[in-house]
């Protein structure tokens, strides 16, 4: 006979936090959101911790190298999507690891033979007033000069005039060698009253530009996720099919952590993948697994050697697994049960395995609820897909700017490995995700800052300055459907007729 759960399967929207005592010391600026990413033993520190409890989903529409750099800057981490060739994914990881904070690879480059018209076109396209000139017009060609808006006047020059005739030549430029630190580069900029400083290799090939404004920006990001070599940290998604080829390439490229990307984690296929990684790399390669929705699934992956475990089936905004297969569980219920299993495992073994709530987050406050219910961090797809830094196109739909967003189970992504159940058959029999648009929301930094300000404020309302303290002190209550309605604007006529969506994130 089938097993029936006595309690209903609940979502985050069915809960509220009840305020607790807030001392005078409990203020938002003193709240720490640092949280473990990978497992550790009692009394030890985790090998990797997040500075903010947010990671980006393993999706084509969300996590590429651009997103990884932007999120690492703020203290989170991206898992670069695995539904691409091994070579392309490894190249994305390598670009993140090669990126030097404050050091910019030029995306607006000129050759001496180009014209003032080309300069104007590049400025209109990229918005940059500083454009290096290289022999071949590439980002890493031999440096021969630079063009800034001080080098030309449109009212007095012909658009056909060659760049070589008005650029500042190389011999009049101040440059820095490759081994220059960001601090030293900034000193050179200030001592010489420069706005930018080219960084060149031993053969005078352009490698990077350092801008005065970028140094200031870098110094204002104390939460940056950096490895021991001061490089940005980055994760990568893998599957249970080609791990023997993909994992070595990603490790060689410098990936700090891996995650098995699957809609169903409670399977031998994930166990086989984890066993292979442990056999070949021991504990040196950190790898998460999932997704699961109950204590049994957690215990299975914990015993198999997972470094963190993801929770959630069918709760994502573009996921239709529940519709198609009738399988899944409310995200709140799943998080509560798995968190309890994690704590019991810790008491039993002395090993703490972080859990990640993946899906089901609709509003900013749901993030706080997930943390209060026991999640160590959350994985977000739609939230990050809305930003400039996501790899999708920004389009105008009926007068509003939107970003394209599609699920890994959609026909567009065709990520059959994520939904693979073994056997020789390869490919998708049916869709488990949709192709859609999400409202464009601007830059990642601005939105993450706003979201986390809400999280910190709510934590103070609960009398907590850390995530573990929140999990210990939190008081949660189930709310009725009427209470949910009462929690928003009601019984008034809004001045702005636009539906209230400003806090909707996933």
From TrEMBL:
GO BP: GMP biosynthetic process; GTP biosynthetic process
PROSITE patterns documented for this protein: CBS (PS51371), IMP_DH_GMP_RED (PS00487)
Catalytic activity: IMP + NAD(+) + H2O = XMP + NADH + H(+)
EC number(s) from the headed UniProt entry: 1.1.1.205
Top-level enzyme category: oxidoreductase
Keywords of the record: CBS domain, GMP biosynthesis, Metal-binding, NAD, Oxidoreductase, Potassium, Purine biosynthesis
PANTHER family according to UniProt: INOSINE-5'-MONOPHOSPHATE DEHYDROGENASE (PTHR11911:SF111), INOSINE-5-MONOPHOSPHATE DEHYDROGENASE RELATED (PTHR11911)
Family of the protein in this entry: Belongs to the IMPDH/GMPR family.
Protein name: IMP dehydrogenase
Organism lineage string: Bacteria, Bacillati, Actinomycetota, Coriobacteriia, Eggerthellales
